[in-house]
Amino acid sequence: MINKRQQEIKNFKPTPFFELEAQFTFENGVYKGRYKERFTTKGELMNLLQQHNLSENNSQQGIFIWTPLYFLHTS
């Protein structure tokens, strides 16, 4: 069992991915959240943003930080 795990670790190949992280502003403060799924291509991430009327605010290689075009207010 240990040998099998060691072999898995040895054969591990890192895969690049994209994450969606956003900052939400509410009346009583700011909340930073991360989308639960990862994207294998930037195109997949951009499609999600277009579907929800979001735009890129700031980005870093491998990690993209996004802010909604409109503010969400909850009461």
UniProtKB/TrEMBL annotation:
What are the entry keywords? Isomerase
Q: Which Gene3D superfamilies match?
A: Topoisomerase I, domain 2 (1.10.460.10), Topoisomerase I, domain 3 (2.70.20.10)
Looking at the keywords, is RNA-binding present? no
What does the record give under GO molecular function? isomerase activity
List the SUPFAM superfamilies hit by this protein, alphabetically.
Prokaryotic type I DNA topoisomerase (SSF56712)
Q: Which domain of life is it from?
A: Bacteria
Give the Enzyme Commission number.
Answer: 5.99.1.2
Record has Lipid metabolism as a keyword: no
Q: What is this protein called?
A: DNA topoisomerase III
Q: Which lineage?
A: Bacteria, Bacillati, Bacillota, Bacilli, Bacillales
